[in-house]
DNA sequence: GAAAGTATGTTGTAATTACAACATTTTGGG
DNA sequence: CCCAAAATGTTGTAATTACAACATACTTTC
């Protein structure tokens, strides 16, 4: 197991190595590996496991009965997912979680939270709050990216956000074309087409997942 | 101030009247009234106030420079909003908050959280976690409602969710036509038109904000 | 209860998207 | 290096949506 990435995570912020080791034990930490494309959770499942990506990445997505995929979020190395379901253990998952590439996930049992002493628990809860509130902002962001009615507007909304985050007009995005299309809720072919037009119009330059805003 | 609605809120779950009174003081609780249409927060503002609706309701929305409105959420009596921004006090708001009708809001200062003792704080943080995780599920829900490419699919996705929540095929929705259109990210006229077609097709019956799924 | 204002429904046309089919480029084994 | 597979780009047509303009219904106020 990759210790350093967990030690640097938001969840354990402010905890020293000894405390983290104890918490890992108390929360039944267990790591598992997944091949690209594997489904880690399916819609309808129940879980009390807070999940942490130690390697690779996963997509949080919804797949309807006609095979349409909507990507809500991409969770990369060093980030958490399923925190809402772990903390509301009655609620069945509304989403699928899928390995976007080969990946390793650490599972932490949240039902064990109640056993911790108040001080440790308060510190951990404060960190969990940071995780959930940040996730909230991510979900809001996606809403703004999909809000424009037209494909070009959605692309620009998304690219602007990434550009601001990376403090640069030139950056890589974590999505391939199909994933970006499913994230922005548009047809892949329409996305490709629009990206071409935007390059012809001198708005952007792009090659694969490298983008430049002009 | 309407005490009972605050006492029954998720935030104070498990606290007795004396504790709640102390907490209200510690968190500088203050109530304010707003007329329908008033903007309570604007995009870009910073706040550390957790907000609670004691009467009426507000919309969490995004208004772009062309006057297009996207409603992310409708927050009614007994519910909280701005919790993400209150808990991440560096982050400027991405959204506007607008009084959907005449309403009363209680503001609770979250910067005072650190002063509480561990036990009280752990209990309060646990409740805050419930608020943020539920908000997360709400935001996810909206993503599913706006995921279908076609207007009819979006309407059905939304109505199904409401129907399941209310355990009935017949129910009222909290939106008027313009709000529903802005929530589902479609044109109001297209929404009205599609609702008419769906009634002709025998899928639903509706009058004003009362709906029945057939 | 009339008038004014607001909300909702209807319709037509221009613009956009969905979808399918196919071309081209890139990637990963052997 | 070549081949197969995957990813990305292109194009055309049918279907859908955006937008504007207007009709109707419902509410509020005087």
Description:
Two copies of one chain form a homodimer. Chain A is of the alpha+beta class and 214 residues long. In chain A, 40% of the residues lie in helices and 25% in strands. Chain A contains seven helices and eleven strands. In chain A, the strands form three sheets. In chain A, strands 1-8-3-6 form a four-stranded antiparallel beta sheet. In chain A, helix 4 crosses helix 5. The first copy, chain A, is elongated, with a radius of gyration of 19 Å. The model of chain A has no long low-confidence stretch (mean pLDDT 93). Chains A and B meet through helix 3 and helix 4 of A and helix 3 and helix 4 of B. The structure holds a DNA duplex (30 and 30 nucleotides). Chains A, B: It comes from Ruminococcus albus 8. Chains A, B: One of its GO terms (molecular function) is DNA binding.
Question: Which terms would index this structure?
Answer:
homodimer, 214 residues, Jelly Rolls, Arc Repressor Mutant, subunit A, 2 domains, four-stranded antiparallel beta sheet, DNA-binding, DNA-binding transcription factor activity (chains A, B), cNMP-bd_dom_sf (chains A, B), DNA binding (chains A, B)
Short description:
Chains A, B: GO terms for molecular function: DNA binding; DNA-binding transcription factor activity. Chain A is an alpha+beta fold and 214 residues long.
Number of strands of chain A: 11
Largest interface: A-B, 38 and 38 residues
- Calculate the mean pLDDT score of chain A and round it: 93
Task: Tell me what portion of residues of chain A adopts beta-strand conformation.
Answer: 25-35%
Q: What Rg of chain A, in angstroms, do the CA atoms define?
A: 19 Å
GO molecular function (chains A, B): DNA binding; DNA-binding transcription factor activity
Keywords (chains A, B): DNA-binding, Transcription, Transcription regulation
Pfam family, one (chains A, B): cNMP_binding
Domain Cyclic nucleotide-binding (chains A, B): 11-116
């Amino acid at each position: 197991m990759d210790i350093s990435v967990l030690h640097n995570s938001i969840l354990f912020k402010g905890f020293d190595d000894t405390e983290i080791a104890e918490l890992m034990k108390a929360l039944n930490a267990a790591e598992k590996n997944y091949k690209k494309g594997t489904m880690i959770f399916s819609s309808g499942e129940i879980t009390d496991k807070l999940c942490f990506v130690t390697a690779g990445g996963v997509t949080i997505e919804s797949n309807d009965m006609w095979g349409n995929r909507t990507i809500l979020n991409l969770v990369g190395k060093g980030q958490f997912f399923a925190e809402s379901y772990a903390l509301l253990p009655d609620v069945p998952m509304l989403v699928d979680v899928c390995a976007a590439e080969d990946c390793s996930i650490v599972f932490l049992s949240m039902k064990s939270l109640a056993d911790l002493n108040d001080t440790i628990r308060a510190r951990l809860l404060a960190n969990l709050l940071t995780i959930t509130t940040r996730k909230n902002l991510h979900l809001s962001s996606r809403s703004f990216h999909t809000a424009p009615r037209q494909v070009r507007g959605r692309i620009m909304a998304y690219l602007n956000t990434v550009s601001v985050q990376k403090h640069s007009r030139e950056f890589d995005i974590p999505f391939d074309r199909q994933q970006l299309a499913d994230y922005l809720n548009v047809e892949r072919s329409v996305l490709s087409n629009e990206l071409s037009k935007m390059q012809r119009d001198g708005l952007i330059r792009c090659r694969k997942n490298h983008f430049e805003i002009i």
